[in-house]
């Protein structure tokens, strides 16, 4: 699964990667009918790094509304709320979608067919049981560069009467590196697959599912970090301070 991640990289860098205009990343752009959550990121002049992004918080995404059209920045509540859901609490159980069954589950099937997004990140947190409790590990690139999770987004008007925009992160089986700490990992898409993933007119689910695999073993490395990250209210560099802990 993926229950925490980071985005410490300024928008100017990741907007370039995802081919969107950094000037269009509005620091006051909140999802419809949503209010700022703890750790909610702002971009441009008021941007702040995020060291401990947790479910139900507002996260950044990249979407494409029309085939051949421009990509744009969006912000969604993390925890997908299907269009038919009448209870907002349901979203807390929808922070992840299993890639193996995403085209079958009623909660995700329609979004997988036509509402796909990229979710910028530069690391994610997973925990491993140790004799003295659960030890968090940061999975990240060796240079902490930004990459993209495969995401889905939805719109709901049933839960509160207002429009709620939300998203989920797809997961898959891990590679040999990430599998040392957990039997699942978020799907990390490669840049050459961004265009197909974002194209709302591309609906060959068999082809899309072929993209939902773990990256090569060399793509991510693991660093044991402070248990300060265990508390979602903490959002500072100390959360990711390396510690001495064996995998």
Automatic annotation (TrEMBL):
PANTHER family: ABASIC SITE PROCESSING PROTEIN HMCES, DC12-RELATED. One of its GO terms (biological process) is protein-DNA covalent cross-linking repair. Residues 25-48 are annotated as: Disordered. Keywords: Covalent protein-DNA linkage, DNA damage, DNA-binding, Hydrolase, Lyase, Protease. It is an enzyme of class 3 (hydrolase). It comes from Crateriforma conspicua. The keyword Hydrolase applies. GO terms for molecular function: lyase activity; peptidase activity; single-stranded DNA binding. Belongs to the SOS response-associated peptidase family. The keyword Membrane does not apply. Coiled coil: none annotated. Its EC number is 3.4.-.-. It comes from the Bacteria. This is Abasic site processing protein. InterPro entries: SRAP, SRAP-like.
């Amino acid at each position: 699964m993926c229950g925490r991640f980071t985005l410490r990289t300024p928008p100017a860098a990741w907007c370039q990667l995802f081919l969107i205009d950094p000037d269009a990343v509005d620091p006051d752009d909140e999802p419809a009918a949503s209010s700022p959550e703890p750790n909610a990121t702002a971009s441009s002049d008021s941007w702040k790094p995020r060291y401990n992004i947790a479910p139900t918080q507002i996260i950044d995404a990249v979407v494409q509304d029309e085939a051949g059209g421009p990509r744009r920045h969006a912000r969604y509540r993390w925890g997908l709320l299907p269009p038919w859901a009448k209870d907002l609490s349901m979203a807390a159980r929808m922070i992840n979608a299993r890639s193996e069954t995403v085209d079958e589950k009623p909660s995700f099937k329609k979004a997988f067919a036509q509402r796909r997004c990229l979710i910028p990140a530069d690391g994610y947190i997973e925990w491993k049981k140790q004799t003295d409790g659960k030890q968090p590990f940061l999975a990240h690139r060796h240079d902490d560069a930004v990459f993209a999770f495969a995401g889905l987004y939805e719109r709901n008007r049933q839960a509160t009467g207002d429009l709620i925009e939300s998203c989920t992160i797809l997961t898959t089986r891990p590679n040999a590196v990430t599998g040392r700490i957990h039997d699942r990992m978020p799907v990390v898409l490669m840049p050459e697959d961004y265009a197909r993933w974002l194209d709302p007119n591309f609906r060959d689910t068999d082809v899309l599912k072929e993209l939902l695999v773990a990256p090569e073993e060399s793509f991510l490395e693991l660093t044991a970090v402070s248990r300060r990250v265990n508390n979602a209210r903490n959002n500072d560099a100390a959360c990711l301070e390396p510690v001495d802990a064996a995998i």
